[in-house]
Specification:
With 421 residues, the chain is α/β, with parallel strands linked by helices. It has helices at 135-147, 164-175, 191-199, 232-241, 267-272, 278-284, 300-311, 320-328, 334-348, 350-353, 357-363, 367-389, 394-401, 405-414, and strands at 9-10, 21-27, 34-37, 42-45, 52-53, 64-69, 72-77, 84-86, 89-91, 93-96, 101-104, 107-113, 126-127, 130-131, 154-157, 181-185, 218-222, 243-244, 253-254, 258-263, 287-290.
């Protein structure tokens, strides 16, 4: 569509519907403020009665109207003094995909998918390389299903070894982007090489594997909190303007990969110490997701152990004592530590590789908690094996287990399992 007097009207193809959208201020005088957009249009401005009332003096009293249309957010400027912009271009009317960012004066608004209810779980047990049947992970899977198709930047928080890169890869797999997934370690960045690592050298033929983030791919910034202070403004400009200046070139090029970042340390702590920019934090944390540690998902421990063993070409049979040790152990290294343990188990034997009973007891939250975790993990593993043996028949499974079918059904429901009959 031709531009006229610096304005443009664009309609983007719908890629899914959203019943409601969160409008979040990510930069400006009201950073952190939010409003929810549903079926009723919302007015953003400084006047009393606006659905999103702002205090930024560069925002007009009734600056812009936002409404849901065909799974996107339709933004209409209301004759504001300083204009409404998207990707730096002034617009009169624009359909913006969820995950996009618009500017009202000096204020930037992120259009985010509404957070799922706290009890809303995904029906998936696998997303990319992630595998889980636990409630915390299936809740995370549901959040990934909502966020991945949008353009929102995502900040992943979690302990070392919890699987943040695997979560980033799952976001890429669900996003529908055709480009590659590129992971970079921010701790290795130096100012002279940062532009090449992020944007690639001047040659357009440089492959993503050589350090170039593809516009139709996903860029994973691992441990973004360790990004050197001198590099942070460069990344902020690229993410904010969706353009980058490659080494040796005079003019910037379009640069718009999906950005996912991770940190094991809350970035607010680095912000308080003056080690991280507030504006960069707001741009990277359009959506923040917490990756649960392994100790909060004990049901997954025997399942993951068996899965890792099969990937290595072996079967792993866990005794009751071994299962008790695994579920009571604190797992400071999380899933990565479990994988390493399985490899050691297959190499040197269960007795030498497993955490000792003393280690497990010392890391658990008391004997009662350790015992409960072990019993629950054993119950699920036992029930799954029983159903597999009897091809899902509850009648035959209950007969062999010497329990009533009604009690078996109660146990199956408690662990999220289902019999065929």
């Amino acid at each position: 569509m031709a531009e006229e007097k610096g304005t443009r009207s664009v309609e983007l193809t719908p890629a899914g519907a959203h019943a409601s959208v969160r409008i979040r201020v990510i930069e400006g005088a009201d950073a952190g403020a939010e409003a929810r957009l549903s079926l009723t249009p919302l007015i953003a401005g400084t006047a009393e009665g606006c659905g999103l009332r702002l205090s930024d003096p560069s925002v007009s009293r009734q600056h812009a109207e936002l409404s849901l249309a065909a799974g996107r957010v339709k933004v209409r400027d209301l004759g504001s003094k300083n204009g409404t912009r998207h990707l730096g271009a002034k617009v009169d009317s624009l359909s913006v995909p969820v995950g996009g960012v618009i500017e009202l004066g000096a204020t930037k608004l992120a259009l985010l998918p509404a957070a799922p209810a706290t009890d809303e779980l995904s029906t998936r047990e696998e997303v990319g390389a992630l595998f889980s049947r636990s409630t915390p992970m299936r809740r995370l899977f549901r959040q990934l299903e909502l966020v991945a198709p949008t353009e929102a930047t995502v900040l992943l928080l979690g302990e070392a070894g919890a699987g943040k890169e695997e979560v980033a890869r799952a976001i890429h797999a669900l996003s529908g982007r055709s480009g590659p997934f590129l992971s970079v370690d921010c701790a290795t960045f130096t100012p002279p090489l940062a532009a090449t690592r992020l944007f690639g050298p001047a040659s357009a033929n440089t492959a993503p594997s050589q350090g170039k983030a593809s516009d139709d791919g996903t860029l994973f910034l691992d441990q973004v909190g360790e990004l050197p202070p001198k590099v942070q403004p460069m990344l902020l400009r690229a993410v904010d303007r969706q353009e980058a200046l490659r080494p040796g070139e005079a003019a910037p090029r379009r640069w718009s990969p999906r950005v996912v970042a991770s940190s094991r340390v809350p970035l607010e702590e680095l912000l308080a110490k003056g080690q991280f920019r507030a504006d960069l934090l707001h741009r990277l944390s359009t959506v923040t997701l917490q990756v649960p540690p392994l100790r909060e998902r004990p049901d997954d421990i025997p399942l993951l152990a068996e899965r890792f063993a099969k990937e290595l070409g072996h079967d792993l049979q866990l005794s009751g004592a071994s299962l008790a040790c695994l579920t009571a152990y604190h797992w400071p290294g999380n899933v990565r530590e479990l994988r390493n343990l399985v490899e050691r188990t297959l190499a040197v034997g269960v007795t030498e590789a497993l955490p000792t009973e003393a280690e497990a007891a010392a890391s658990a939250e008391g004997f009662s908690q350790a015992r409960l975790l072990a019993v629950k993990a054993f119950e699920r593993s036992y029930l799954e094996a029983l159903l597999r043996k009897h091809q899902g028949s509850a009648t035959r499974a209950a007969r062999e287990a010497k329990m009533s079918r009604s009690y078996l059904y109660e146990l199956l429901a408690e662990h999220g399992l289902r019999a065929k009959d």
